[in-house]
Amino acid sequence: MLYHLLVPLADLFGPFNVFRYLTFRSGGAVMTALFVSFLTAPALIAWLRRQQPSGQPLSDDVPRDHRLRKQGTPTMGGLLILIAVTIATLLWADLTNPFVWIVLLVTLSFGAIGMADDLLKLRRNCNRGLSGRQKLLLQSLIALFAAWALGRLLPPPLSDSLAVPFFKDLFIPLGWFFPVFGAFVIVGASNAVNLTDGLDGLAIGPVMIAAGSFALIVYLAGNAIFSDYLGIPYVPGAGELAVFAGAIVGAGLGFLWYNAPPAAVFMGDTGSLATGGALGAVAVAAKHELVLVMVGGLFVLEAVSVIVQVASFKLTGRRVFQMAPLHHHFEKKGWKEETIVIRFWIIAFVLAMIGLSTLKLR
């Protein structure tokens, strides 16, 4: 909005020229989302507490000490992230850019699915909301449409192929299968973040790290000079998503203020499904789907731990981990919550640096 209002006035008032710069507007989105979070959080959390006298229903599968510590904490704090991200994006982004609208649509739609799931859990007073099939179906339909729309915005050969990291101009043609693959990336990222969200601050830290990494990636991929120098796919218009990614970082910082141990509010599926879907959609738009596996490697580890645990138990009757997802395994081993969270953040940061190295190692 500010871009459209103030850039035309730059000839009359020189300082307005800074609104042309993507870096300035991305920084503005970070600070705006952070400010909106701090402004709205107290009233929102108070309202959630009134609506949820007993707090979030907790599964019997989590460690007993975990249930005792978390009892009475309200959920659906992801609303705070969605409000901050939406306001910051609409305020600072170029709203004629279709990439922005598609990624924002995915984020809000996945947030709505998560909200429906959270509300059902609260209404039933148990950890059973939407069924897995219902969530996957809704997510898949939205993600399939988004991947198809993003493919139509990309120039050939990017529109229907997979870019391979570490290699210049190496693309695997997927043809009609590209929207399916793109949807898999978006839905997979969404549910991986959802599985990671189990301890205070555990999910939002890596989300911010991944969002900050992709803010840099989309900025470079959307710049013809930088993308040519680095040998990465040039995606015209994708640079505007740096504003959106910056908004996630700012909203994440604001949310973490209230989600830090001991958490005053949980993000719930409202936040985890939305932020994960957002990361997946940005990765598809920037043609860095495989890099997301590295940058978001912690989410992958958490998801794989669940897959391995379920597969092992069904095939052999034995469990590989004391409990899955992975963070609960370390809880059962006696690690303190804060220790798990900080060490997982460190892992997330290291994996993000490995992912960013693909920008130059080609």
Description:
- The protein has 362 residues and is mainly alpha-helical.
- It has one domain.
- It is built from 15 helices and two strands.
- It has helices spanning 2-6, 22-51, 64-70, 78-92, 98-124, 132-153, 178-196, 204-221, 224-230, 241-259, 268-286, 289-295, 297-316, 326-332, 337-357, and strands at 161-163, 171-173.
- The chain has a two-stranded antiparallel ribbon.
- It is globular and about 60 Å long.
- The two termini are 38 Å apart.
- The model has no long low-confidence stretch (mean pLDDT 91).
So what's the oligomer here?
single chain
Number of helices, counting only DSSP H or I runs of 4 residues or more: 15
- How many β-strand runs? 2
Question: What is the makeup of the main sheet?
Answer: 2 strands, antiparallel
What is the N-to-C order of secondary-structure elements (H for helix, E for strand)? HHHHHHEEHHHHHHHHH
Average pLDDT for all residues: 91
Rg (C-alpha, Å) = 20 Å
Show the helix and strand layout:
Elements: H1 2-6, H2 22-51, H3 64-70, H4 78-92, H5 98-124, H6 132-153, E1 161-163, E2 171-173, H7 178-196, H8 204-221, H9 224-230, H10 241-259, H11 268-286, H12 289-295, H13 297-316, H14 326-332, H15 337-357
Antiparallel strand pairs: 1-2
Helix pairs in contact: 2-4, 2-10, 4-5, 4-10, 4-11, 5-6, 5-11, 6-7, 6-11, 7-11, 7-13, 8-10, 8-11, 8-15, 11-12, 12-13, 12-15
In short:
This protein has about 350 residues and is mainly alpha-helical. It has 15 helices and two strands.
